[in-house]
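Q: What changes when pyridoxal-5'-phosphate is included in the input?
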Amino acid sequence: MIRINENYLKLKASYLFSDIARRVAVFQEANADKKLIRLGIGDVTEPLPQAVVDAFHQGVDEMADRATFRGYGPEQGYAFLRDIIAQEDYQARGAQIAADEIFISDGAKCDTGNIQELFAPGVRVAVPDPVYPVYVDTNVMAGRTGENIDGRYQGLVYLEGTKANGFIPDLPKEPVDLIYLCYPNNPTGATITKAQLKAWVDYARKHRALILYDAAYEAFIRDPELPRSIYEIEGAREVAIEFKSMSKTAGFTGTRLAFTVVPKSCMAYDEQGNAHSLHAMWNRRHTTKFNGVSYPVQKAASAVYSPQGKAQTKALVDYYLHNASIIRQEMTALGFDCVGGENSPYVWIDAQRDSWEFFDLLLDKAAVVCTPGAGFGACGQGFIRISAFNNLASVQEAMERLRLVLQ
Ligand code: PLP
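A: The predicted holo structure follows.
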């Protein structure tokens, strides 16, 4: 009799997006004449930048010609892409990351999910609350938690983000080994300063812990004082792995390209306390289980770093940032406290009532879809997330409708 991994039975079904979809469907049935504006989901709406499209086409053309055709590439990614990322995203910003410490993949979702298999089943895991759910569910699947009781898994340490701490959790009071951090944050849009991030790096060094730093929204940072990578912080090379993605940086959610940075100086320990290179372990995992991102997609991603590509991706991100600032300004003017929307595509709004109650109000009265904060964890209750990923006209119309309903 084939047995299942019973840890899967502990997973709490994610009712969030199915619940939203159900409520939206009911509304649409009753209001077929009303145009719905979706500011819930975190998916991009604007097309790929032209420089990326041109490089993508060129990559496909090369694959169509016997002289330039390519089969399997290096699992870790082509050197032309790893080199340019190391130079532009790291060395140019004073972070000492080498090209061979960068692993190209098809998504930060899978990388943040897969990384935990390098660690012992018994490591103590700290996750933010509110949280990007992948961090939690992958550790549940691996058996690092007990049952879910009242919305929280036994055995996980929840790092609480609240209005009082500006959604930058305090350092843990109990011992933890693996720490997930994400800035600019999904869902709160909060950003972390260098001094705040340094406190986490120092904590990890002191306790031989490891930080898994999700920088998927790094491209939205415009404030030059904010860190765009954890490796801008002294000492991080020994205690942090970083995840980045072209999804929101350059509109790649449907094209797929991301990368994980594992510095060679990053160590974890066996039962006897001997140090082991996480770079070597991740390289082993990656080359065993992954066969590389397609050549045209890597070629397209490398164009993000060309002079035209840089200007066009900046303009693309600026477009969403402009939407975010409109959302933040409008909601603030209507008397709601907001986090995010600056250096981030998400605006996190204190709903002054139950998350779902506010969600229903915006849907029923304004035909605007947001995301109830309670779906991201206990600390999200009482908040909603509004996403800037839509076109400007829709964002403006949504805000006009909200003004009529909320003022
Ligand atoms: N990390 C965070 C915090 C995200 O919000 C997302 C996507 O929404 C991802 C990772 C996934 O990125 P990718 O599209 O590269 O899988």
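Observations recorded in class: The first strand starts at residue 37 and ends at 38.
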